Amino acid sequence: MRALLLGGAATAFVATPAFAQDSEQLAAASTTEQPAIVVTGTRITNPNLEQSSPIQVVGQDEIDFRQSTNAEELIGDLPGITPGASNSVNNGSAGIATLNLRGLDSRRNIVLLDGTRLVPASLFSETDLNTIPVALIERVEIVTGGASSVYGADAIAGVANFVTRRDFEGLEAALSYGITERGDGERLRGDLTLGANFDDGRGNAVLSIGYQEVDDVLMGGRTFSQVGRGRSGAAQGSGTSVPTRISSTVPGGGGVNQLSPDGTTLVPTFNTFNFSPFNYLQTPFERYNVYASANYEVTPGIEVYSRAMYNKTTVRLRLAPSGLFGDTWQFPLNNPFINETIRQQICASPVVNVDPATCTAAGAATGQADPNYLEVPVTINRRLVEQGPRNTTNTFNQFQLWAGVRGGLTDSIDYDVYASYGETQRNLTRQGWGLKSRVQQALRADDATNCQDPSNGCFPINLFGGGVGTNIDPRSVAFFDQPTGFADNISLAVVNASLFGDLGERGFFTDTPVGFAAGVEYREYNATRVADVSEGTQDEVLGTGAPAPSFGGRYDVIEGFAELIIPIVEDVPGFYSLQAEGGIRVSDYSNTGTSVTWKAGGSWEPFQGVRVRGIFQRSVRSPNIGELFLPVTTGLTGLAVDPCAGTNPVGNATLTAICIAQGAPPALVNAGVISQPSAEQINLTTGGNPNLDPEIAESYTIGLVLTPPQVPGLSVTVDYYDITITDAITQRTPDDILNPCYGPNSDGNGSDPSVCSLVIRNPLNGSLNGGGDTPGLTPPLTNQGRLETRGVDFRVAYSLPMSFGSLNFDLNGNWTDTLKFQAVPGGINRECVGQYSSNCGFPSQTLGGEITPEWSFNLRSTVSIDDIADISLLWRWIDGVDYERILSRAGLDPQFESIDDASYFDLTIRSNVSENFDLTLSVFNLLDRDPPIVGNSVGTSSQNAGNTYPSTYDTLGRRYSVTGRIRF
At residue 248, does pLDDT exceed 80? Predict the structure, then answer.
């Protein structure tokens, strides 16, 4: 198969259609003197052949008006596009900005630069939008609904192609500055671009240098996010707090009790820690980028070209102080910081069960050599406020090189052969997290100043002093607060050879010839992670959730592809134009074998200005390196209510038996003292699966395009889309485990008791919290999922000439009829349109974590005053949404059950101050609208933070931006 694919391209007899709002302008710009215009979604370059796939275009004016610091801001809030990771995501962020088309997850689309792939920035083949050279972007073209037959796997939800300016000549310098009305969140962007033609226009070279800096905004800097809110609406933080909580049983108390204020006893209280103000609403980053390109016509028909891109990006993340988050510790009963009362309480715990005399003798032991010395297993919850906040720095060094030769074989057939190689190096460092092994070493103390093992400068840790936050000695903090880190190295190599053009001077029955494209492509992906000992060890770095052990993986693929667009009839009554198109791609993966993707469609224009288009596509996505090879580790996921917690199982024999079978101590279950999830988070154990197969998607679009010549300047498009993904790479959500196990009423009467084996509890306290000794939920990654979405995209653009210039209106909207996720056959087929919850927001496993409203639109209205100025108002509207309707609302604040529709207005004025200088001023969130408040626990911690959804709703408030640009 590989020899066949390397030897030549596969043939095809069907093709794709596409429409872009700029299609007429693009066609007009295509002349014999200029390079061929490539429209995203097809490799066929004839401007007279329109493909059938809908294309959404962000043009140069929109780019200028938005004054974006990075490419994610150009497209992240477009209707039909669900925000991916962005600088609004702090907890769980990998330091990159991603694209999530149709809410189907960022791993199911491709980001292109001038039609070519970019090196991934993550182990899951995600492209970091921060690496796009915004200063050189001419337009962005977005195709949704599948493009695998044109661009290969990963494009089952579509592609976003960032198109750069060609043959730039002159000098352009721009400087942007922005700040919020509260005086924080400053943004700075500077770009310098130089370009020149040489050798009488046979060659061109461009160099662009850029710098961007975004400052942080803390949750403590906004009133709505200063205090975390739980389901009930009351202030609720983490159960890991100050003073210390420790597993023990006291009269009337539960399984985990808190140190009394005077430090003399353990009492049945529960003090929570407000983690919110430490976190970022806007994560800070700094980026340097360099982009260069050159092309030279060696002889007529032979042009050599090259591109090079380099980015260095530093992204900083911050969380509340680290702690001992319910892990199991071997606690020496002769610890010098406890008194006899606390010691006896620990010994009396059902999970310790040491008699009083032995307990007293162990307390008097002089060291490990003493025969009375005894350590007992306990769980400890203590926020290490003395360390300060947890800081993480992600530093990315990314480069990519392209080199190729292109030209014309004949007057109607062109060729393009190129090779590309890129690498992303990510270095992650942590400070202020703490090491578990060193805390354990510091707990084993002979006295208040000497550890049993003094190596590495050990100093004893006092977790039992009275008061708040001042009782751990700085020398102890210096001992266990050690920096840690890991490095990811990801590479992509591509070799592509293609032919494209026209088959003859005219078609079979038309003056317009048949367009074709065919070629072969080879890609090789490599990824490695090298972690230090601490990062690679489960539970060693406190407060991280999952560790990041070293591993590596690779795969390659050889593909052959072909496309045709066939004009059937034109310029006859009832058939101003009739076209068919199709494409096929045969892929041979080293890890998953051979797969075939294809498309078939066409368009019919009964008379000029009215076009009907449609296309069907079968797309395939092969699993990426992370999904295949990521080691199994224990991390965190969201859960507010544990069915085995509190008194719920007491008196219920069925439920009690389930909880005990999952590892909970019988005494604690029967006493009804198992704690609810700390900070509404529990453990999740998962990893890659080398036996995964490709996903399969079938999609179709049917649309209408109106550009009536009787109404110059009017363009209307309406497109229905339907995408279904089977054999989807997914895993069960928490509710997909809890409901079949415990039943919808959490009474033990579940529909599938076998699912209960996916729950493994803390052996000491019965909770789903703790370190690696508590796997928690253990859903495997499988090909059992199913995703589907359908809806309508619509756009109305109208330009009305006026005596002073023009009035321009551009309405871009989306109606999503359904967005469903089913983790396994027979599981809940969960509807996520217009709903929010942790189930409709589980990145990498379901639908990406963000809100998908039923209706949304952007309306830009612009007054252009000749060549003097533009005054533009953008209205962004998001439909109201509800808490997931099939879930219980017990204990949920009624205010958190729904979010009203939201409107945001951005006002921009762009003025041509002189022939060579223009100035752009903007006020974003003009009306200073606050975000909706829903607490911190209705969704995932990555996307539901600061009591709201910061990637969907504006959390910064009114802000200002100014950009000055000089051109020569």
Answer: no
Strands 203-214 and 217-218: unpaired
Q: Which helix (H) or strand (E) holds 659?
A: helix 653-661
Look-up: residue for tokens 């059938």? 52
The one-character DSSP state at 44 is -
State how far the Cα of 6 lies from the Cα of 519, in Å rounded to an integer: 9
Tokens of 895: 């205010």
The amino acid that residue 267 corresponds to is V
Q: Which helix (H) or strand (E) holds 398?
A: strand 390-408
Bridge partners of residue 377, in order along the sequence: 330
H/E element holding 870? strand 869-878
Could you read off the pLDDT of 452-461 as tens digits, one per residue?
999 999 999 9
- Whether the link from the prior residue into 454 is cis, omega within 30° of 0, is no
> For 909, phi and psi rounded to 5 degrees?
-125, 125
**pLDDT value at residue 467:** 54
For residue 111, give the nearest of 102, 103, 100 by alpha carbon: 100
Measured distance CA(909)–CA(919) in Å, rounded: 8
Return the closest-CA partner of residue 342 out of 244, 421, 197: 244
Instruction: Report the number of secondary-structure helices (H) and strands (E) in the chain.
Output: 13, 45
Q: What percent of the chain has pLDDT over 90?
A: 68
Dihedral angle computed from the Cα positions of residues 777, 933, 850 and 861, in that order, rounded to the nearest 10 degrees = 180
DSSP sequence for 199-244: TTTTEEEEEEEEEEEE--EEGGGSGGGSS-B-TTSSB--BS--SS-
Tell me the per-residue pLDDT of 577-625, one tens digit each, with 9 for 90 and over.
999 999 999 999 999 999 999 999 999 999 999 999 999 999 889 999 9
Q: Domains, the chain, ranges and CATH?
A: 2-219+288-311+556-623+692-732+781-967 (2.40.170), 636-691+733-778 (no CATH)
DSSP E strands, 707-763 = 714-730, 759-760
Say how far apart CA 19 and CA 423 lie, in whole Å: 34
List the structure tokens of 620: 């395939």
Query: Residue 284 phi/psi, 5° resolution?
Result: -80, 145
- On the 0-12 / 13-18 / 19+ scale of CB atoms within 10 A, 152 is buried
Other C-beta atoms within 10 Å of 888: how many?
Answer: 11
pTM of the model: 0.90
Q: Where are the beta strands (DSSP E) in 260-301?
A: 266-267, 280-282, 285-299
Task: Check if the beta carbon of residue 837 is closer than 8 Å to that of residue 880.
Answer: no
**Residue 206 pLDDT exceeds 90:** yes
Nearest-angstrom CA–CA distance, 165 and 645: 60
Rounded to whole angstroms, how far apart are CA atoms 789 and 852? 11
Q: How many residues does the chain have?
A: 968
Confidence of residue 294 (pLDDT cuts 50, 70, 90): very high
> For residue 676, what are the contacts with CB-CB under 8 A and spacing of at least 6?
640, 641, 642, 645, 646
CA distance 292 to 968: 19
Instruction: Output the furthest CA–CA distance in the chain (Å, rounded).
Output: 104
Tokens matching residue 913: 């101050």
Query: Residues 656, 668: contact at Cβ < 8 Å?
Result: no
What is residue 803's DSSP assignment? T
3-class SS string, 429-460: EEECCCEHHHHHHHHCECCCCCECCCHHHCCC
The β-bridge partners of 714 are 798
Closest CA to 899 of 854, 834, 847: 834
Please compute the mean of the pLDDT values over residues 56-67 and round it to a whole number. 90
Pairwise CA distance, residues 292 & 375, whole Å: 64
Query: Which residues are CB-contacts of 80 (< 8 A; sequence separation ≥ 6)?
Result: 56, 101, 102, 144, 791, 793, 814, 816, 856
Nearest-CA neighbor of 13 among 570, 509, 600? Answer: 600
All residues at 6 or more sequence positions from 859 whose CB lies less than 8 Å from its CB, including other chains = 809, 810, 811, 812, 874, 875, 877
Closest CA to 121 of 490, 400, 428: 490
